[in-house]
Design brief:
This protein is mostly beta strands. 0% of the residues lie in helices and 37% in strands. It is built from no helices and nine strands. The two termini are 26 Å apart.
């Protein structure tokens, strides 16, 4: 059921109630318009994943840490609106895992234009 949510996060997995597009390694502030194509929906083989954002991180075999890959993502919401998203960190203070911190810009008015403003959020 996709009623009431646009993004779901479990550990290091991110899924969307609608679709996500990987915009590549671009500056967050340079993204002013969501693309009109390239959006990918979740897959449900074994585990629910979104292939567009599934590898938002680089894993270091040396440190065993997840580090953001520097990509920006466009999110199409269940209501057909758009947001841009960049993952900033996966760790809380003291390197405790599971504190996904990201910044985003959301277009509440409709259309594909995206706000140059951003907000950051973390679950803790």
């Amino acid at each position: 059921d996709t009623a009431g949510w646009d993004l779901a996060i479990r550990r290091f997995h991110i899924i969307s109630s609608a679709a996500i597009a990987d915009l590549g390694e671009v500056a967050f502030d340079s993204v002013h318009v969501a693309p009109d194509s390239g959006f990918v929906t979740n897959t449900t083989r074994g585990d629910t994943l979104n292939p567009a954002i599934q590898k938002w991180y680089r894993y270091s075999m040396l440190t065993h840490l997840l580090e953001p890959n520097g990509h920006v993502y466009a999110v199409r919401t269940r209501e057909g609106r758009y947001a841009k998203l960049e993952v900033l960190s996966y760790y809380c203070e003291g390197l405790d895992a599971g504190c996904l911190t990201f910044r985003y810009g959301y277009q509440a008015a409709g259309g594909r234009g995206l706000s140059p403003e951003s907000r950051s959020t973390s679950p803790r």
